[in-house]
Amino acid sequence: MREPGKAIASPLTLTMAQMALAWVLLRSEVSSTISGVSRPEQIADDVRAIGVSLPFELLVRVDEALGNVIVKTDEGLRILSPLRLPLNN
């Protein structure tokens, strides 16, 4: 998703990491995120993703780029259509 991700993030003046974190933070099935950083300035950059409002059109483009998502539930693994994933809004 690296190249499609950059193209999706750039109109919002977000880095790809910021867009990815903002997208993950919207997902109700995600209880926490882990950001792999190696420099202190990367932490400051990642924090800017908190509270970012992603337009619906961008969410659609991200989901299309990702394809199907496998979710672990109490009943086991299942494949969900990305557009059906619940949002925390």
Q: Would you kindly provide a written description of the structure presented here, covering whatever features stand out?
A:
The protein is an alpha+beta fold. 43% of the residues lie in helices and 11% in strands. It contains four helices and two strands, in the order ααααββ.
Give a summary of the structure in a few sentences.
By secondary structure, the chain is an alpha+beta fold. 43% of the residues lie in helices and 11% in strands. The chain has four helices and two strands, in the order ααααββ.
Blueprint of the fold:
Elements: H1 2-9, H2 16-26, H3 40-47, H4 56-66, E1 69-73, E2 76-80
Antiparallel strand pairs: 1-2
Helix pairs in contact: 1-2, 1-4
